[in-house]
Amino acid sequence: MKITVRKEDKKLVCWNGGNNNNDPLLEEYTVSDTFPEGDFSRMFYENGEIIIKPYSAKEIYDMELVKCLQLRKQAYLNESDGLFFDYQRGEIEKKVWESKTDEIKVRYPKPKI
Predict the structure, then answer these.
(1) CB-CB contact of 92 with 76 (8 Å)
(2) Is 98 helix (H, G, I), strand (E, B) or coil?
(3) Most Cβ neighbours (<10 Å): which of 5, 56, 90, 108?
(4) What is the pLDDT of residues 36-63, one digit of tens each?
(5) Number of C-alpha atoms within 13 angstroms, CB side, residue 61?
(6) Chain segment 69-111, per-residue pLDDT in tens
(7) Are 42 and 56 in contact (CB under 8 A)?
(8) Mean of the pLDDT values across residues 3-21?
(9) Dihedral sign, CA of 82, 85, 89, 91?
(10) By three-state DSSP, how is residue 41 classified?
(11) Using CA atoms, how far apart are residues 10 and 20, in angstroms rounded to an integer?
């Protein structure tokens, strides 16, 4: 069973099967404006009921931290790793490489606890 949320009309939709809306509709529920939609809630089907469980603060922090570290890693690869090798070869000063890594850390700060 696939569970999706159509945010535009506040419908919780249960489809039978794959990942497209051509599958036969099983059930459709209207939800309130306070429905916890988006990246910070989980929906699952259990014992014939739709269960909606918001993520905990720790889970949100962990997700944001992983995203931050992934973005930093890509930025280091694209922007600062080459400078590090230039520094190792004596072609630039260490400060140039360090300032680039500091710039990346500022651009992608770790989430606050």
Answers:
(1) no
(2) helix
(3) 5
(4) 444 446 666 666 666 667 677 888 889 8
(5) 6
(6) 999 999 999 999 999 999 999 999 999 999 999 999 999 999 9
(7) no
(8) 50
(9) positive
(10) strand
(11) 18
Q: Is 31 helix (H, G, I), strand (E, B) or coil?
A: coil
Which amino acid is present at 34?
T
Instruction: Give the residue among 9, 15, 5 at the shortest CA–CA distance from 52.
Output: 5
Residues in the chain: 113
Show the CA angle centred on residue 46, arms to residues 45 and 51, nearest 5°: 60
0.90 exceeded by the pTM?
A: no
Containing 86, the helix (H) or strand (E) segment is helix 81-88
- Report the b/e string of 67-85 with b at 16+ CB within 10 A: eeeeebeebbeeebeebbe
Alpha carbons 10 and 37: distance in angstroms, whole number = 9
Helix (H, G, I), strand (E, B) or coil at 25: strand
Q: Identify the bridge partners of residue 25 per DSSP, sorted by sequence position.
A: 15
